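Re: the multi-chain job from yesterday

Posting the exact lines I submitted so nobody has to dig through the queue logs.
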Amino acid sequence: MKYEKNDVNELYKSIGIKANSYIEIKENEAVIKIQRKWPLVEQIISFCKTPLENRQQGGI
Amino acid sequence: MRVLCVQGLQAGVGGSTISANLARMLLELNQKVLVFDLNPNNLLRLHFNMDWQNSVGWALNLTQKKLWCAAFECEHGISFLPFGQLTYQTHQRLIVEYLDDNKLHYQLNSLDLSPETWLILNISSDINLLNKQALALSNFILRVFEPSVANLSLLINSMQSNYIVNDAELSNKSFFVINKLIPHSELDHEMTLVFKNLLLNKLLPINIHFDESIKEAFAHKTTVNIHAPTSTAVREFRTLAIWLMSYFNRLEQP
Amino acid sequence: MIATKKKKGVYSPIKTPLDVILLSIIFQPLVIQEWRNFKKILFNDRNQLFGTFAGLFIFIFMILFCHESQRENAAIFLKKCFPHINWITLSFADVIRFGLQSFWLMTIQTQTASAALSFDLKMILNIFNLITSFIFLPFTAISKGFGFVLTKIEKASENYQDKFDPKYYLLGIFFLSMVCLTVPFNISAQIAFIFMLWLVAMIARTITGNLPKLILISLSLTVSTRYLWWRYTSTLNIDSSVDIFFGVILICAETYTWLILLLGYFQTAWPLQRKPTPLPEDTTLWPSIDIFIPTYNEDLSIIKTTTLAALSMDWPEYKLHVYILDDGRRPEFGEFAKEVNAGYITRDNNRHAKAGNINQALVKTNGEYVAIFDCDHIPVRSFLQMTMGWFLRDKKLALIQTPHHFYSPDPFERNIGNFKKTPNENTLFYGVVQDGNDLWNASFFCGSCAILHRDRLLEVGGIAVETVTEDAHTALRLHRKGYTSAYINVVQAAGLATETLSAHIGQRIRWARGMAQIFRVDNPLLGKGLTIGQRLCYANAMIHFLGGIPRLIFLLAPLGFLYFHSYLIYAPTTEILLYALPVIVHSSIASSYMQGKYRYSFWAEIYETVLAWYIARPTTVALINPKIGTFNVTAKGGLIKDEFFDLTISKPYLFLIVLNLLGIGAAIYRYFLGPDNEHGTVFINFAWTAYNLLVLGGAISVAQETRQVRTQHRIEVDTIVSIRKKSGHLICAKMEDYSGSGLGLRIDSNVLNFERNEQVHILISRGNREFVFPARITNVNKGFLGVLFENFTKQQELDYIQCTYSRSDAWATWRTDFKQDKPLTSIKAIIGVGFHGYIVLARTLPKFITHPFLLLGMTIAFIRSLLPKNISDTPTTFDVR
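And the result, structure tokens for all chains:
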């Protein structure tokens, strides 16, 4: 069986519905854990909260 | 004409390497490619087997008052324009005397390339007159960085005040690609995830790994698809090239 | 070889072959060269008198009729179109093969033949094509028109708004069907009748949709009910006590089969095929879930994978708790649970086995929902997000079940060798039956891969402990309380199938006994709270397991006549055929149409025959006294070191085979020495016995346990990974299979610098992430690398499972890979399996007995080799023989 890169997309494709609702919870949790793990990363990311929101609204 | 601009987030992240390898890969995929080196370090040419002593280049030609595009070189079907080996003084003279606001625009027009040709502009990481022109003229900006904390810092800083970020048009067409991802480095993988989470769809879905084959290919004065065709790097560059091709195809469709 | 030949040629001149001399008399050297080329491809340059001259004949024919450019490919074409002819060693039988195959290509396989053909013959073939399509034109036209009308009706019925009183319709239908079923016909009328029905069925089966399905079902029900009516009214011989004795037994078995058919159609006529429902975007609204992994005596390695996969599920960490429920009370399990941050629950007794284990844990935990996984069922990470949406949507929902899927072959698949080629035994249940149940809100709990609402479960007293199939019983109780259940037919977990036939039978005995117990203790047809649909679905699930005795009756029925000269069906032969054959034909057309992808035709015969003897007694006992009988755990993950024939398990079948073989003897005796007017009856009974023998052969074939040496099953995949060598080079590779301990990788055959025992890292990516695993190369073989993982950290173990078993699409296309059933192909496969059983049997017998059988087998094999072959099915490498 061929494994494509995004497994959830493939799953949805196989049951014939559009993938839009899946939430990558473990991945989001991993990001938070990683940020906590490295002090410098945490500082940088916490600083960029606002620009991040900016970016989500428009552009980087 | 598909103008693709490759810029490193900082010097040494591998912009020239990516330009060269991408160009070769596009050629392998039956595309017409011209690589235009706008980076004064003049390294790109070495990927295409140009003699190290040969200092010819378009910038040098300009300063010597020759026809600038006489610097065309061709190797294995790749057309490229080396920058030329300039001394500090000549470089200063180039900036002051020969570069004006429309220089690059004029140059590209005079090349008279067919619409399906890829023009890859390899620029340095700093913001100068030439680079600004290159960024403005391109259809796609590929920004290269390493998945390091230092690069994260740079990236966040550039988000605060950066030439590209502040220009909506530039930032719309700019995308990021991770280079030199060290396979067995835990931090690198973790940072990749952080970057992905930060940049979302602005980060290309292809990461270029740190691979001995790429370094060796350069040492052999060639690109990796010729030096080590079975390496992972080749597949990564191929995926990158195909991604870009489909991106441009979508862009060009009304 | 060629090299040595050439060398010889330098020193001694090759003798010019006779055929070349003959050709050179007539033709020019150019043609001679062409002949040499032709010969080289076809005969590999070997000379053989007959073959060469046959080839020469074809060649001259070609020279006369074909254009030069077409001659180049002639030899290749011949090889392609006559795959069963070995041109190197031609024999006289090949002339027959050639003739038959040519006829076959020209009449039946014209399409493929003309595609393979670049001759002018194409034109001729096209004419043949035209003729065949002209003959079938009326049928195609009817089918097309019919399909058009049906789709119109289906559309119209969707928009049908007006109220109508079903009473009158039902009354009308009842009246009409009574006429259809009960009016006796004379033979010619019956022939006309069945022919018409058959025609309608043949047309209906070419159209897809629900209406054709209902048409097929009603046709099948019509003929089978008519058959039964006929049987009851006009085939029982009341005058003879022996006849009536056997006759009543047979008619009871037939009535049972009819009932199962009826209920089966009811159950599977309209599968609901429920799709997952999305969850709210705000994850704080998601409920909390406890995951139970009950275990008793399984290996830690099995539990490890399941636990890690359960922990990897995409659900908020603080709302997901995984518990290992260890009835074996093993300290290392507790330590492992602690390491990975899972709960560990034990108890001081093992009362009520798995059900008791879960009930105990229900008391000790407090999530809103409980998901239960057998310890070998590895869930994928999307399991909860695919299922939980329905709980939030349907407020009365108490249970969601997903399919059980097995990534290792079950004993049938392994011993017959059809793993992943034929849908296996449980595919039908999880592919069609549960989906059909779902329409009636009757899909039930299957013990694993399911989620239950805790409070509702506790309301019915937790998992039922009164019977040995606690799962179905629990679901029944939930339904009685008015709660609903759902079935989502998306494979979201996979496990190990039972290893041996005896273990499989043991498991089925338990199910059968349990179902019979429920039927006695808590009969779904009686009691409060169920809808009529639920009652019928549950009843069918239970009655289905009572099929042991009827099946044995069918296996012995023809012997009633052959041994005792008793007319079980007291009717003329032609009449029997005219009533019975349509039943078989229509039920197989209907089931093939309904279950095509999930169960191939006639395989049920083998599955059920194997079980018949073993479930006959326990179900009967359980029906009489439901309290007798013990619980046995299904063992999984074992090894079979040597191939062996499971004599103990096949003893009853050997006995039945002997009885049937004697029956064949009796049939021959009766044919030649009995009265002439009995020939028809003898023939029918003979055919029936032969069929029984075939099916019994299939059962024997399954009892031949093939070797199984791997502890870890390899799962085939196709994905790109990278290998990082110690030197820092990354090599691109294709992952072909994985198991818990290693991978099979395919690399470019130009990459040569891999050595055994080399330490490498494997880079596997999933979604946005990439993971690196340390490994050692254990096997290097021409572009194939076998690697074994080494020194995994805890995190790497988790990551590895996320990259493999718990990918959400890990089993997504597994079932869709099966093609639609072709009844004829299926019959062929069944015959093959049946014969194989006798070959297995023959190996264990002394030579003088087996010799005649061997001779018979060889004769059959020879005759088979004469038959034409499908050319599209044969591989492109030609020297198959």
